[in-house]
Amino acid sequence: MQGHSHYVPTSGIGKWMDTRLPLPRLVYDSFIAYPVPRNLNYFYTFGAILSFMLVAQIVTGVVLAMHYTAHVDLAFNSIEKIMRDVNYGWMIRYLHSNGASMFFIAVYVHMFRGLYYGSYKAPREVLWILGVIIYLLMMATAFLGYVLPWGQMSLWGAVVITNLFSAIPLVGPTVVEFLWGGYSVDNPTLNRFFSLHYLLPFMIAGVVVLHVWALHVTGQNNPTGVEVKDVKKDTVPFTPYATLKDAVGLIFFMILFMWFAFFQPNYLGHAVNYVPADPLVTPPHIVPEWYFLPFYAILRAITFDINLIIFTIPSKLGGVLAMFAAIAVLAFLPWLDTSKVKSTAYRPLHKQFFWAFVVVCVMLGWLGSKPAEYPYTVLSLIFTGLYFAYFLVVLPLLGLFETPRQLPASIADAVLAKTKKAGAPVTAGAAAAPQTKG
């Protein structure tokens, strides 16, 4: 997808800048003339939506940090002061807290789109792995941020999650003590979490730059999974074609975002977190935010010791390993899927398994919100097994036995076939859209 740059500076200042720091050339080549597949649908707009949400979270987070006090005796009241006394503080706080949920909604759609269309397959393995790293950093940032209001769920969520590291053999207790900054979740813990929560979004931004760079090296995947063969016929310039589509997708997403932020700002949160943290009172049901619930269900699914030939894995360590393995397995997806066909649209059998996998993930999320008791623990174990079976059994075997549908010869042929099916008139030059230089 890369090619020689056709950017030509027109002014003296532009020429002077282009020979010293060619930022205008970079912007032109990356966001104006860059060729994208002509058949991208609106599911491909979520990359732009995520970029917008990252900037929004950083901006609102910096403003909130100006008024927040990272001290166990003052943190809760500083949040209340932001809500009541800071000009538009309530709006900034609700945009930030609901923005985290919107961020995860967008990233889950983005990930499932990648799974459906095979965006993790060669030559985009590094692009996919960078996406998994971004996802891990997002999860860490969201968890750290949820602790900062220092309500009841914040405190006890921190206690539960940090205690998971104590299951690590030999070094576990030392790691927990380091995270706490002492022997319990207290003021040093809050200071550590605030510092890391402020730092990690900028790390995410750095990895996003690498992610976009990798995307521009390999080019975008598309709903057919067929690579670009003829740049003139198979692609259109990023601007205005992709930018306008991204703008429409962002507008509709912002409507959803604003509805939560202004009309249901506390709908996705927990009421108990509006009670100041009390280390002497344990909430009856400790649950994380909704976007962590599937992994929380996997964590709690292992309620028994795993007896191996050489050693025994305690149930607590087994749950922790299963939870982290559920995320780590995503990074190995390019090599677990043995099918040569990228897009699920041309894999009728895999399409059924894919939607079954979506149901499994939704069920795990529901089970994560339930108490750790029968029958939810048994169901969690069953759906955890189904989750891993999709990656470790279904994808490797399907590539060997599935017979995919006939792929189109090119992206342009797929577009023309779709146009004919819709009944629209097709001319000989219909496959070629106007091109800009580059």
Automatic annotation (TrEMBL):
Keywords: Electron transport, Heme, Iron, Membrane, Metal-binding, Respiratory chain, Transmembrane, Transmembrane helix, Transport
Cofactor: heme; heme b
Cytochrome b/b6 C-terminal region profile domain: residues covered: 228-409
Residues that bind heme b b562: H96, H197
A Pfam entry, by short name: Cytochrome_B
Binding site for heme b b566: H110, H211
Source organism, top-level taxon: Bacteria
Co-factor binding details: Binds 2 heme groups non-covalently.
Oligomeric form and interacting partners: The main subunits of complex b-c1 are: cytochrome b, cytochrome c1 and the Rieske protein.
Family the UniProt entry places it in: Belongs to the cytochrome b family.
UniProt protein name: Cytochrome b
Organism: Phreatobacter cathodiphilus
Lineage: Bacteria, Pseudomonadati, Pseudomonadota, Alphaproteobacteria, Hyphomicrobiales
